[in-house]
Write a structure and sequence with these properties.
The chain is of the alpha/beta class. The protein has 17 helices and 19 strands. The chain is 35% helix and 19% strand. The chain is globular.
Length: 449
């Protein structure tokens, strides 16, 4: 298939009112009355499966019981003791696959307690109160820790260390702290600048300095951190996106979905952000969903989201897939890109090959499909992609940093967590737990030094 249509990419497809409406909070907040009624549905199980399913081990029955009792401050404390980024996780955590999936009410009635929304209710109440800071620092230890990466893992590590009395310096390549919470999530999940408000709450405990615009590029930098600090935590996430590996992938109009989302998140006026009329998103994860849905919300007429396997193997949750379809995204499965077609140096269409599983392996069926496109967004995964790490002597596993259960690497005094750490689910809530676990292990190490 070939086409000579000119690319239709432009800003301002909607009215100001439409932008405000479409990018408003995707999940309306519970009213106080709704929160109490929902909290009273909880059975307050003794050996609660929801708490076991939470990667950060939040005592879910305890915080919900306090909501029912009207003690929102106590509820928030129960949450934040286990998860210092409990506000963001309440917004983006796939609760339908974790705590809510194993809720006894889900088993009995097919409708779990709305744990995520209740968690947000409590944490938001604290954040918006006159005295949002509920934690204080222990006596100074005189120890100083370097944290590379100001994403969920790095922030959780820094906050936990600061509470324990250590001084922390966070180094990050971006202009703002927050990592994927600031640059990688759909704006309708985190409206009203919540990511930065949460970062500020974390920093308000004291003892944490953030240095932005710093990137790990040499082994000398790495060694300087090890020499100048008592311990080092690596939480830089995954910076390199995978390539399509097909002809035409270098054409104008083909870009990484993470870059598209970051640009959207940092654009003060969405009416100035160009979007294609016809968009194809390649990938099956939550990044692909966020890019596809936001393209549609910006005014794209047709958005195809294409995945090479079936719906059951998509990393995007079922709820995310349904959300995409609810917002007009057309989902396609069992299709692999063959070629990106172009006209005058710009993408004009994508050709796909239908796939089928044969003896457990993907094989082309011989059928091909093509769709016209003004923009193609790649969301096919990311890798660590930093050659410096291997040069430092760090042990890697599958291209990520190998650690023990507490996040300690093979190098003395160096820990790692979040997406850059080998193994795991690549979830915000898991990154928080990595940071928290590593901080406690670092504290034990520093107290022995």
């Amino acid at each position: 298939m070939s086409t000579t249509l000119s690319p239709d990419i432009r800003p301002g497809r909607l009215s100001p009112q439409d932008y405000a409406h479409r990018f408003a909070d995707a999940t309306p907040r519970l009213t106080p009355a709704q929160a109490v009624l929902e909290a009273e549905r909880c059975l307050y199980c003794f050996d609660a499966p929801c708490a076991t399913a939470c990667p950060t081990s939040i005592d879910v029955p305890s915080f919900i019981k306090r909501i029912a009792d009207g003690n929102l401050r106590g509820s928030a404390r129960a949450i934040l003791e286990s998860n210092p980024l409990g506000g963001m996780c309440a917004r983006v955590c796939p609760t339908e696959n974790l705590c809510e999936a194993v809720c006894v009410k889900n088993t009995q009635e097919g409708k779990p307690v709305a744990i995520g929304r209740l968690q947000r209710h409590a944490v938001d109440a604290l954040m918006e109160s006159a005295q949002p800071q509920i934690f204080s620092r222990a006596a100074p230890t005189g120890k100083k820790v370097a944290v590379v990466g100001a994403g969920p893992a790095g922030l959780a590590c820094a906050h936990t260390l600061a509470r324990l009395g250590h001084d922390v310096v966070i180094f990050d390549a971006q202009p703002k702290a927050g990592g994927l919470n600031e640059y990688g999530l759909a704006s309708y999940k985190t409206p009203d600048n919540f990511a930065q408000r949460e970062v500020q709450w974390l920093l308000d405990i004291g003892g944490i300095e953030v240095r932005t615009g710093w990137k790990l590029e040499t082994t000398e930098q790495f060694q300087t951190l090890r020499n100048n600090y008592d311990a080092l935590f690596l939480g830089m996430g995954l910076a390199t996106t995978h390539q399509l590996g097909v002809a035409g992938a270098e054409l104008d109009g083909v870009q990484d979905a993470v870059d598209f989302i970051a640009a959207l998140r940092q654009t003060p006026d969405l009416a100035t952000l160009p979007v294609g009329r016809r968009v194809i998103v390649i990938g099956g994860g939550m990044t692909a969903v966020d890019a596809a849905v936001q393209s549609k919300l910006l005014g794209a007429s047709m958005v195809h989201m294409v995945y090479r396997r079936g719906p059951d193997t998509m990393s995007a949750s079922k709820a995310e897939q349904e959300w995409a379809q609810t917002n007009g995204v057309v989902l396609h499965h069992w299709l692999a890109p063959l070629e990106v077609l172009g006209h005058n140096g710009h993408v004009s269409a994508v050709r796909f090959a239908e796939q089928a599983l044969v003896d457990g392996k993907l094989q082309p069926t011989g059928r091909e499909l093509s769709w016209e496109a003004d923009v193609v967004l790649k969301a096919i995964g990311q890798s660590l992609g930093n050659p410096v790490l291997a040069q430092t002597g760090l042990a890697l596993d599958g291209g990520r940093i190998a650690t023990d259960a507490q996040g300690q690497t093979n190098l003395p005094g160096v820990w790692a967590g979040g997406d850059c750490r080998a193994g795991g689910l690549d979830l915000t809530v898991e990154a928080v737990e990595h940071g928290k676990q590593s901080a406690r292990a670092m504290h034990a190490h520093l107290c022995q030094a």
